[in-house]
Amino acid sequence: MSTNFCSLIGGNTRAALCGGKRKVPKKIVVGNKAFTSSEYADADTFQAAMLAAIALPTGDSNKLFPFPEIGEVADNTEAPTMGNLALGAPRRLRKGRPAYTYSVEVTHEEYQKLLAFDGVEVPAFSFDDAAQWWGYRAAAAANTLNTNTYKGETIYLTVSGNGFEDGANVATGVATISVSYKSIDDFEKRGTYIKTPDMSAGDLQGLIDIMLYEPQAHVSNVYKIKAIIPTAQLGVTLDVYDDIGAGLAALTWTAGTGTNYATSLAITSIAVDATLKALTVTLDTTAFAALASGAKIKLTPPNTTALIAGSIVGFEIGSIILTK
Amino acid sequence: MPKVPYKGGATLVVYDADWAASKSQKEFIAHEKHNGLSNEQLAEAHNLCKAAVKAPAKETTPDPAAEQPTT
């Protein structure tokens, strides 16, 4: 029988050799995706699941958004709160929360897209320079067998900076991504990682938004649809026709009308129009004739999964509302 | 829904084969002539669509064997 509690404080303190520790962050990937144990069964499976989550369409609850590659890290972890009685030894009263500031070099377009995440609370995975993904065990207890879902740790995220450079200091003109971890426990006790040796930060790229518009008025049931990438530079849009126009025509588009656009309309053909550098979308004449004048038609392009299957990688296309 | 691409000169048109196969050749040509293909090319595209869905053609001659009286 022990005469004290000291042997009952914890367990043995040594861990197996060659384990991982948090290294230099290269990317954060934000979103609510929780990986199941079958999805992180091994590195290759997890890598595929991670890339699939990034490729999901915006609006999917499992969508993940990769941020730009980190160029500089500042550890802004809160200092612990200390105190001592007048005659006592100083002791820690409260742990400081982990917080980091990441500097990234991005274009103005990319910065504007990042601003959508300014001031939000969102789960985030961190990918470090040892190819380790850091998140936490999102269910059950810490240090249980690997059957918990694995999720990004919740952070407060702010985006700022990206102003003018000063011509002297390389750190000026960069965008600043500040992350502050909400739960110390999730970061420490429930924090966990998976190593993906074959993955690099460059594999984690966000999608580029493509916008659809009508370059000219429709003629009866035949609509001209043009696909472009809008930019922050005035007078400049990027026309994707030459690169992926034919590929887009070959994929499945859908059209719907009525309440919530739930009534489908047959798209009988999609042709490439080399003159307008657009697609010619033809709807079924009979169904179109039955619509009232002014009826709205939602034209839905192939989603990201279908685009990838059609070898069009790295894009997401928004829907367009047409009017009869 | 199978897609059937048809390239006639510089014109590439991708058809919904299910829809095309449900139409007669005449209906198909009338509906799709605006894309710049000739009637012959449209007829060929229609045949390709029907083959893609392996659907019985709307204008197929009835099978004589099916009309034999049973004994």
Describe the structure.
The complex is a heterodimer of chains A (324) and B (71). In chain A, 30% of the residues are buried. In chain A, the strands form 4 sheets. In chain A, strands 1, 2, 3, 4, 7, 8, 9, 10, 11, 12 and 13 form an 11-stranded antiparallel β-sheet that branches. In chain A, strands 14, 15, 16, 19, 20 and 22 form a 6-stranded mixed β-sheet that branches. Chain A has a 4-stranded antiparallel β-sheet with strand order 18-17-21-23, with no helix packed on it. Chain A is mainly beta and 324 residues long. Chain A contains 6 helices and 23 strands. In chain A, strand 15 and strand 16 form a beta hairpin. Chain B has 71 residues and is of the alpha+beta class. Chain B has a two-stranded antiparallel ribbon. Chain B starts with a strand and ends in an 18-residue tail after the last helix. The mean pLDDT of chain B is 82. Chain A binds chain B through residues 219, 222, 246, 249-252, 266-272, 274, 280, 282, 284-285, and chain B through 1, 3, 5, 10-16, 19-20, 31-32, 34-35. Strand 19 (267-273) of chain A pairs antiparallel with strand 2 of chain B, so a sheet runs across the interface.
Topology diagram in text:
The complex is a heterodimer of chains A (324) and B (71).
Chain A: E1 25-31, E2 34-35, H1 43-54, E3 64-66, E4 72-75, E5 81-83, E6 91-94, E7 99-104, H2 108-114, E8 120-128, E9 132-137, E10 150-151, E11 153-161, E12 175-181, H3 184-187, E13 191-195, E14 208-213, E15 222-230, E16 237-239, H4 241-250, E17 254-257, E18 263-265, E19 267-273, E20 278-283, H5 285-289, E21 296-300, H6 304-309, E22 315-317, E23 320-323
Parallel strand pairs in A: 14-22
Antiparallel strand pairs in A: 1-3, 1-8, 2-10, 4-7, 5-6, 7-12, 8-9, 8-11, 9-10, 9-13, 11-12, 14-15, 15-16, 15-20, 17-18, 17-21, 19-20, 21-23
Chain B: E1 3-8, E2 11-16, H1 17-21, H2 25-32, H3 39-53
Antiparallel strand pairs in B: 1-2
